[in-house]
């Protein structure tokens, strides 16, 4: 074969591949991706609505007066591990369970 026939044998299929219309499989893939994008968009919109509802609920609870006033609680912590001064005005107690 001559050099020109080799070039034609190589370039002709490449040109065909470059300018060929997309196959049916690619078209289906694009349609499937479009459907997935639309589903994700709807999901995001639903989550945004849920977040707005939660925010409104939290704001309404923050503005409403509390049902019970805070009460002072006295605990005897003598002999238990502690940090800080014994005569502190505020004591924070942590209850934990290691199971």
Describe the structure.
The chain is mostly helical. The protein is built from two helices and no strands. The chain has helices at residues 3-19, 24-63. It is elongated, with a radius of gyration of 35 Å. The mean pLDDT is 79.
Provide a short characterization of the protein structure.
With 99 residues, this protein is mostly helical. The protein is built from two helices and no strands. The chain has helices at residues 3-19, 24-63.
Give the arrangement of secondary structure elements.
Layout: H1 3-19, H2 24-63
**Strand residues, percent:** under 5%
Low-confidence stretches: none
Largest sheet features: none
The tally of beta strands, per DSSP, is 0
By DSSP (H or I, 4+ residues per run), the number of helices equals 2
In N-to-C order, the SSE pattern is: HH
Give the proportion of residues in helices. 55-70%
Radius of gyration: 35 Å
Average per-residue pLDDT, rounded, comes to 79
Through-space gap between termini? 81 Å
Overview features:
single chain, 99 residues, mainly alpha, 2 helices, 0% strand, elongated
């Amino acid at each position: 074969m001559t050099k020109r026939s080799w070039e034609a044998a190589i370039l002709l299929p490449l040109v065909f591949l470059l300018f060929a219309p997309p196959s049916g499989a690619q078209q289906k893939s694009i349609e499937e991706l479009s459907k997935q994008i639309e589903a994700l968009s709807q999901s995001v919109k639903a989550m945004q609505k849920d977040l707005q509802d939660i925010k409104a609920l939290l704001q309404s609870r923050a503005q409403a007066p509390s049902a019970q006033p805070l009460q002072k609680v006295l605990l005897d912590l003598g002999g238990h591990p502690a940090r800080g001064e014994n005569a502190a005005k505020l004591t924070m107690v942590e209850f934990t369970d290691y199971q």
